[in-house]
Write a structure and sequence with these properties.
The protein has 287 residues and is mainly α. It is built from 14 helices and no strands. InterPro entries: TPR-like_helical_dom_sf.
Length: 287
């Protein structure tokens, strides 16, 4: 169920998939966790429930429901801890760090990313890259430039080792790594470097990640405009709008709302006016 819901979330966004994920523990999971089982089966059930709780929290973040997300994240930690599932425990702490950093709480995000690293002393290279990338972003947001660059180098080295073994579809991948590079660059005032890394991330993203593509192209366009590349930004926003109507995501809505505000001073430009007219009938949710 978690895999199926996750696929819906990747393609269509949290508003589509989260209600289903939230109801499943009530209708099915809770009863099964009460059943008699061997220790091994019970641990596996707890681990599966923890993974679903983490995903539900992640989708709540995508809906802009941050308080609800935190409650699901805490439940995921509880279940993963009882199952002794270090992978889901670390993934959840890292997800909590992402939420904190995205809300501008850099020190809290750093603490959570460090906690994720401490909880995974034997992490494989892909998980290590996953954690180090987030540590780099959090460090950059707190102004710790040296640490941010060190964590980013470690993330890149770990990703190289992971990719040499096999490409794990659906987990931390080179597109996600380049997103972290972009965020570190941006936090450290290298907007041009951030644009380059976001372009690389977009080129590497798997086709099924429609929601992420809308969000990240919106972010890329914002930064292209920030460095003065208006026409490139307009082209990128058009790419985001191509898929935006099929996505139900507060985070995607935010990118489109930002676009509307950012292009307003440039409406005398013919290309911008065309973009504005195309977006006029699209109704993003207010977040």
């Amino acid at each position: 169920m978690t895999e199926r819901v996750s696929a819906l979330d990747d393609e269509f966004g949290g508003r589509i998939a989260r209600p289903t994920a939230a109801s499943f523990p009530v209708t099915t999971v809770g009863e099964r966790l009460q059943a008699d089982a061997t220790p091994e089966v019970r641990a596996a059930m707890l681990s599966a429930a923890a993974d679903l709780a983490y995903l539900t929290g992640y989708m709540a973040v995508d809906e802009g429901l941050n308080g609800l997300a935190q409650r699901f994240y805490l439940k995921a930690l509880e279940l993963a801890g009882e199952a002794e599932d270090h992978l889901t425990y670390c993934t959840t702490l890292r997800g909590m760090s992402v939420q904190a950093v995205d809300l501008g709480h850099g020190p809290t995000g750093m603490q959570l990313a460090d906690a994720a690293a401490a909880a995974a002393p034997k992490a494989g290279p892909r998980m290590l890259a996953f954690i180090r990338g987030q540590q780099a972003h959090a460090a950059a947001q707190t102004g710790a430039k040296t640490e941010a660059h060190r964590y980013m180098r470690e993330a890149e080295a770990a990703m190289d080792r992971a990719e040499s073994r096999s490409t794990a579809f659906g987990s931390y991948d080179p597109a996600a790594l380049h997103y972290h590079i972009a965020q570190v660059c941006y936090e450290l005032c290298d907007v041009a470097g951030s644009v380059e890394a976001l372009q690389q991330s977009d080129s590497l993203r798997f086709s099924v990640y429609q929601r992420a593509r809308v969000r990240m192209r919106g972010l890329l366009a914002e930064r292209q405009l920030e460095v003065g590349h208006l026409e490139e930004a307009v082209k990128t926003w058009h790419l985001a709008l191509d898929e935006y109507p099929r996505v139900q995501s507060a985070r995607a809505d935010k990118r489109i709302n930002n676009m509307r505000a950012m292009i307003r001073p440039h409406l005398k430009n013919e290309k911008v006016a065309e973009l504005h007219e195309r977006a006029r009938t699209m109704k993003p949710q207010t977040v």
